[in-house]
Amino acid sequence: MKMYILVRESVALGYAMNAVGHASLACFLKYASHRDMQNWLANSYKKVTCKVTDEELTAAMHAADNHVVITESVLGHETVAVAFCPRKEWPESFGELKLYR
Question: Which pTM does this prediction carry?
Fold first, then answer.
């Protein structure tokens, strides 16, 4: 079980750090009663944070459901990150995304 958090590569580091924190909390709040979230909380707590292009972000949102979008008001309410409810199996494309380092 792991949660994926994808951050747009064009977002400055300071905004990205805040977005990741907000994304993990927003995802938990939205899916708190979901069985996969409960399993993740009890057994895993693993998160994968990736830096993605706009195209990769759009493709990921179409490839996997149960996600929450984080925007930033200072950036004109642009989407800065997306967090996906934890699960065991992920689309193959998620394994090809670049880790945020």
Answer: 0.96
